[in-house]
Amino acid sequence: MKHIKFLFILALGLSLVACDDYLDINTDPNQPESPGDLDLLLADMTATTAYNLVGGGNWSRYGAQWMQQIANNTTAPSNDTYRINTSDCNNEWAFYSYAGVLINAKKMIELGEEAGQEHHVGVAKVLMAHNYALLADWWGDIPFTDALQRENNGKPLFDDQSTVYDGIQLMLDEGIAALGKESPVSIGGGDLLLGGDPAAWIRFAYALKARYYLRLTDAPGADDQNLSNLALASLEKAMTSAGDEARFEYNSDPGQESPWNQWIVKFANTMQMSNFFVSKLQGLNDPRLPIMSDVNGVDAIYLGHSNGGAPTQTLAEISNIGAYYLDPDLDIPMMTYVEQLFIKAEAQWRTGQTTEAAATYETAIRTHMEQLSGNGEFETVISSTDIDAYLAANPLEGLGDLIEQKYIASFLLGAFEAYNDFRRTGFPDDIQPALNADYNQIPTRMIYTDTEVNNNAANVPANITLTSKVWWDGN
Length: 475
Known about the structure:
- By secondary structure, this protein is mainly alpha-helical.
- It contains 17 helices and 4 strands.
- The radius of gyration is 22 Å and the shape is globular.
- The termini are far apart.
C-alpha cells in the first residue's frame, strides 16, 4: 500500500483530537501530548521531509535549475537567473523546518525519552540532524543551540555553521545509539520512509554521516584525509544496496502524485531540459539521455533550453523532462545508494586508494544505468555492452571525473547534493552562469528570509547576499 495514504489517517486523527479538545485552549491539537501519539508526529515529519524539503521544495528545484539540469523556457528574470526575494524560502525556513519537522522532532524526543520509546527517539534524532543539515547547507549560520524554545525564546541566537555540523554528527551518533537499544514500543505506521525498521534507520544514519564528513573536505582548516577515513568507516555500516534507501512512495491518485510530477505537469510546464545537461550527455554519448529527456515535439531530436536565455523556441521545440522522472508513481529517496557509492569512491580517491576508487566509481555508474534501464517513455534498455563501453570511454582520472558522473546520476532526485558538490569542489567546471542573470556567478548560498529578518533582526547575520559563501565552501 502506498505510504501516502497514511496521510489521510494522520489528518483524520488530528482532526478528531481537535474536536475532543475544542474547549481546552491550553492544548495544541496538532502537538500530541502522549507517547501513544508519536506515530502521528512521525508521519508528519517523514511526509514533510520527503515532499516539501527533499522531493518538491526549493532545495531540489533551485538545485536542478542552478546546476542546469533543467531550464525555465520563459522570459527572464526568474529563478533560473537568480532573481530571488527574501520571501521565496519562507516556507522552507519557517514552516516546514523550524515550525515543522524540527519542533515535532524535539517533541517526539521528549515524549519518547519519557516513555522509553528508544526507536522513536532515534528516528527523531536522525531526521533532526538531516533537516538541520539542509538548513545549514542552504543558509550557513542558523539558530541551533538556541532554537526550538518557542514562547520561551522567539529571538534565538545564530550558531556558526561549524558548530551546527558538530551537532549534526552528535545527533546522528545519538540516534544510532537509541535505535540500537531495546524499545517497549515498535515504530508503527507513522514511519513512511523505512517501515519502522530500526536497522534500516541505522544504515541510513551512517550514510548521512559519510555525506556530512565529505561535505567539509574544503572547509577552513579541514583535514580531508581524516574526514575521508571517517566517511569510509561510516560507510562500512551504511546502506548495502538500493533496497536500503529511505523512500517515500507516491501514486497516481489526484493530489498524491510524485513532487516533480505535481510541480511540472500541473504548474510549471515551461520547465524543460537544460541545454547544458543535454549537451553534456550528448558529448559523452551517454545512454541515459533517452530516459532523462524526451525528444522534442517537432524534429524528434534532443534539444535543451539555455538557462536564462530568451524563449525564442516554443515549448514543443524544446525537450521535456523524461517521462520516467515525471511519473506520478515515482518514489523519492532521501538519499540514493548511488550517491553513497560516489561518496565512497571520493573518499577512496582522497586517501590514495586509486584502484579501489576506480572500481567503486564504475560500480556507481553501472548501478545507476541498470536502475534506469527499461524505464522511461521509450523503455530504453541500456545493455551491459553499452555500459562497458561507456565506462571504458570515461575512466576515473581525477576528482572532476568523479563529481561530473555523480552530477549526472543526481538528475532531479539529488539536485541539491549536486549543488553542494559544485560549491565544495568546483565541478562540473564547465558550467557557466545563466544568461541574463542578476549575478555574474552561480549563487553560493541562500539569503535569509523576511520572516526571520522581521522577527529576529538583531541576530540575523548582516550583509549576506546570494554570492556570500557558507563556511565549508573553501573552493
